[in-house]
Amino acid sequence: MFRNQYDTDVTAWSPAGRLFQVEYAMKAVKQGSACVGLCSQNHVVLASVNKAASELSSHQRKVFRVADHAGVALAGLTADGRVLSRFLRNECINHSFVYEALLPVSRLALRLADKAQVCTQRSWKRPYGVGLLVAGLDETGAHLYYNCPSGNYFEYQAFAIGSRSQAAKTFLERRFNSYKDYTPEQLIKDALSAIKETLQGEKLTSSNCTVAIVGRKDDGTIEPFELIDARRIQELIDSMEAAEAAPTEPSSMQEDRGSDAAPMDI
After folding, report:
1. In angstroms, rounded to a whole number, what is the distance separating the alpha carbons of residues 137 and 143?
2. Residue 246 carries which DSSP code?
3. Burial 221-239 (b: 16+ CB within 10 A, else e)
4. Is 266 helix (H, G, I), strand (E, B) or coil?
5. φ and ψ at 200, to 5 degrees?
6. What local confidence, expressed as pLDDT, does residue 51 receive?
7. Average per-residue pLDDT in the chain?
8. Phi and psi of 264, rounded to 5°?
9. What are phi and psi of 13, to 5 degrees?
């Protein structure tokens, strides 16, 4: 039996119990520009790679503000991501108008998952070919969710999606245990380092990445979701590169040798 007998309709199950159109949508996420999210106790950072379609075109936005307390980063079909980000923005506005309170991030991720899951139940629809990292802050603290085209969603301490995201995941897995106590600047630096892992032979600069942050200030008020200035990002990148290029201190054994050491071959 051939696959194309079961992938023309999103509601048609294959004999192996698979929905191929949903799997195709998940593959579209893997082919999109890499996005990274990191979460501490009071702050969440989102970072994405700016990838232009050609040298003559500009890049498409991958990070969107949803409300003062929430934002999203997306990988996959940007057009689908814009539709979903507009849906999330309307949900936040409606909830704030009715209840005069911020929409909890967990409920925001749930409504997004429900909207995506409907597209797997209607034969005249197709799944959204985009994955979203939903970052936000509410009364319970800072949260980071990943919403899948299948309608599933998961909460993470740190996560990466998109092209070559496995390298970023490997970097994050080695460090995520300490993210709860990180300062905002430390989170941004680790987000930039994770983004750097996804670039193959390309230098990380402020022009090929976007970073955004949302969090809580020391006085308890919300620090609104905002994109970090490109100049500030470049300063952080330069400081990271300077720290990596700093020479290591010579060992005590080398110091004790002094002038008795044999000359090195050059």
Report:
1. 6
2. S
3. ebbebebbeeeebeebbee
4. coil
5. -105, 110
6. 87
7. 89
8. -80, 150
9. -85, 140
122: exposed, middle or buried (Cβ count in 10 Å: 0-12, 13-18, 19+): exposed
pLDDT of residue 257: 46
Q: What's the rounded Cα separation, in Å, for the pair 126 and 150?
A: 11
pLDDT in tens, 57-77: 888 999 999 999 999 999 999
pTM: 0.88
- 66 neighbors 212 (Cβ within 8 angstroms): no
**Residue 178, number of CB atoms within 10 A of its CB:** 10
Six-digit token string for 145: 């969710």
Rounded distance, CA 109 to CA 99, Å?
18
Query: In a 3-state reduction of DSSP, which class is residue 157?
Result: coil
Q: Within 13 Å, how many C-alpha atoms sit on residue 146's CB side?
A: 19
Instruction: Centre a 10 Å sphere on the Cβ of residue 242 and count the other Cβ atoms it contains.
Output: 9
Q: CB of 171 within 8 A of CB of 197?
A: yes
Tokens of 29: 């996420």
User: For the segment 240-249, what is each residue's pLDDT rounded down to a tens digit?
Assistant: 999 888 765 5
260 DSSP 8-state letter: G
Element spanning 257, H or E: helix 252-257
